[in-house]
Amino acid sequence: LALAAGEQPSAELRAALPELPALMATSDRRTHEVERAVIDLVEATVLAGRVGEVFDAVVLDAEEKRSTVVLSELAVQARCDGRLTPGEQVEVRLTTADPATRTVRFAPAAD
User: Fold this and answer.
1) Band of pLDDT at residue 111, cut at 50, 70 and 90
2) Per the CB 3.0–4.6 Å rule, which of 24, 48, 67, 73 could disulfide with 62?
3) CA-CA-CA-CA torsion for 69, 107, 45, 32, nearest 10 degrees?
4) Is 58 in contact with 72 (CB distance < 8 Å)?
């Protein structure tokens, strides 16, 4: 506001500027956490009555004992038990959809 009015910012304000990047990074991190929590809640709520159903999915990535899949027909990305091959199209069975914990979990349908 001071600059817009053609004035110099106060010394206190200028002294606080070095703290701004860290504060902005913290704000961005918290924003991402809230956005992820909202998405997780929506996904769990949409799928809550469909536990046991089989869905077509694509494997995004894989770790030692679990993978991440994205459903083909719904905008849902979630963990899937077992190591699958990234890029592979698979059928997965919904094993958990709990809005209270914002948890969605799948398992390979062939298991």
Assistant:
1) low
2) 67
3) -40
4) yes
Can you give the pLDDT at residue 53? 97
Nearest-CA neighbor of 107 among 75, 72, 69, 74? Answer: 69
What's the pLDDT tens digit per position in 13-65? 899 999 999 999 999 999 999 999 999 999 999 999 999 999 999 999 999 89
Return d(Cα 26, Cα 20) in angstroms, integer. 10
List the structure tokens of 10.
Answer: 């106060």
Strands 77-81 and 103-108: parallel
pLDDT top residue among 111 and 3: 3
Structural domain spans, the chain: 1-110
Fold topology of 1-110: OB fold (Dihydrolipoamide Acetyltransferase, E2P) (2.40.50)
Terminal-residue alpha carbon distance, the chain: 63
Are 91 and 108 contacting, i.e. CB atoms less than 8 angstroms apart? yes
